[in-house]
Amino acid sequence: MELETLKSEIEAAIPDCRLEIVPNPAPSAQHSLRVPPEHGLEVAFFLRDSCQFDFCTNVTGVDWPAKELTEKIKVKQLVDGVEKEVDQVRKTTVPGSLEAVYHLYSIERRLGPLPLRMRTADRESGVHLPSLTSVWRSAEFQEREIYDLYGIVFDGHPDLRRILMWDGFEDHPMRRDYVEPDDYEYEPTAHDEVLARAKEHAAKANPV
Amino acid sequence: MSAAWAPITEPSAAEVPSLGRPAPRPAMPVPPDADLAEQYLEISMGPQHPSTHGVFRMNVVLDGERVIQLKPVFGYLHRNHEKIAETESYLGNMPYTDRLDYICSITNNWAYALAVEKLGGIEVPERAEYIRVITGELTRLQNHACLLGFLLQDMGASGTPLMYAFREREKVLDLFESLTGARMMCNYLRFGGCRVDLPAGWLDRAKAFLAEFPRFLDEFERLLVDNEILMERTQNVGVLSRELAVSSAISGPMARASGLNYDIRKADAYSIYSRFSFRVPLGHHGDVYDRYMIRFLEMRESVKILEQAMRDIPSGPIQNPAVKARLFRPKPGEAYGRIESPKGELGFYLISDGSGIPYRYRVRPPSLINLTVLEDLCLGRNVADVIAILGSVDIVMGEVDR
What we know:
The structure holds 2 protein chains of 2 kinds. Chain A is built from 4 helices and 9 strands, in the order H-E-E-H-E-E-E-E-E-E-H-E-H. The radius of gyration of chain A is 23 Å and the shape is flat. The model of chain A has no long low-confidence stretch (mean pLDDT 85). By secondary structure, chain A is of the alpha/beta class. Chain A has helices spanning 3-13, 40-49, 139-149, 192-205, and strands at 20-22, 32-34, 55-64, 67-79, 82-94, 97-106, 111-119, 128-130, 153-155. By secondary structure, chain B is α+β, with helices and mostly antiparallel strands. In chain B, 43% of the residues lie in helices and 12% in strands. In chain B, the strands form 3 sheets. Chain B has a 3-stranded antiparallel β-sheet with strand order 1-2-3. Chain B has a 3-stranded antiparallel β-sheet with strand order 6-7-8. In chain B, strands 4-5 form a two-stranded antiparallel ribbon. In chain B, strand 4 and strand 5 form a beta hairpin. In chain B, 48% of the residues are buried. Chain A binds chain B through residues 24-28, 30, 54-58, 60, 62, 101, 103, 107, 110, 112-113, 115, 136-138, 140-142, 149, 163-166, 173-174, and chain B through 74-75, 78, 80, 82-83, 118-121, 244, 246-251, 260, 262, 267-268, 330-338, 345, 347, 349, 351-352, 360, 362, 364, 368-369, 371-373, 401-402.
């Protein structure tokens, strides 16, 4: 089935839902569908019930930190009264976000994989996405894992707790900017070297 | 007449020598207004428990002997495999995949190689595909044999079945050792082929093993298949419905025991599986007994595949010469590749940003996802059934925790 057909089918069934096809240039050509989070549940139910995508095998997170793009552009400027083309460097910042990817298959129709993507607003406070556990039960542990390792909060998840790290752990280790502790069992000693290392680490982990 | 015998009298309680045993405690007085139905017992099974197949813990709430809640606790073997992989080159990750499901390392290599091949559009030579099928199916034989041994051991059939299974597994591991140099951590497959060709005489030894194997299967199956205790403990225990299996993305023998006709070797025929004639065994009840039996049937089908593959294997190159494994830099993009590993659907999801290190590397672990329904299977059963149900799921903690 063509992804364009599927996209227009979904958009016809769910009013004011705009989907985006994310092309995949790799030879695998597994193009994916980006869903706005506010329509995530509706799209998921539609895919399961009307398109028979009943088998949601893989659920995972991806971290996209903010990155700065530099590009050279030519700008026309008046230099000494004469119009000239001058090179200028323009910097644009792409805001960071966290992404959840669901790989769907259809057992009845032997289709797949259809990667479904949802992006959070940012990486700090707007990390909420709707949980699709009520649609596909297989997302239960995998969404917990994403919550644990990436820090995406899945609204409506029945039991959102850490799954691999321990409950007292605070950070999200799979994020790209995660700084791991020097020593998990760190105890202060009188050794200057160790203290200096700890100080350096504290400055890195909690920049003022 | 000599002196009369002294009359035998019962010794008084005070005269009995104490054996150091405390006197039995009087029963706890039950308060007259106590509601006995509310008295639940919460126990922690594991992490150091022989039947949990590694360090796995279940927080179980019991009402008498019945399970009314079961929460699995993971993470004791967590080493953030995915994070490590995102700092290593594509080739450098291959040996790490061995450590996921350490019973079947070659199928882990295969799933990873398949995902990278999809990402880079790599062709695999004919002979290498046959070698992959042969080693992969041998892996399935030894995994299923092991699992059946473990399951029976957990249920109290102490020793004999496990030793029978391990005797066969040793033979497979010997074959792997002579082929790859390692018994368990094989690190054998590469993108676009295999690391080394089959050594001289290897195929004959493998054929000799395969000729004997059905005899072991018959013997092993006959050992306990109509045993009354086994039937009592496994039939109608831990029933998984087809609907729940689909919704929870249960894969592998566990899904097929519930009647779900979904074998990736058939449904999404990767490699050269479309060339072989084999059947997909299906269960009807989805209970522990079906999951036990389906492994026997799958081994018989694997034997068929192996016979065909060993008969048809061509000569030729084993590695695609166009692949520069050490300098492998795929173009930006992503790929999800999956195979039917002995445990179920093992998938790798890779995102490349054009560098030599994967931007995102994700393992879809069948062991973890098959545990999603563990609580559903155990609710209302006895504690002893939890052990049998967990054993029939077939997990390896190296893969669950990653």
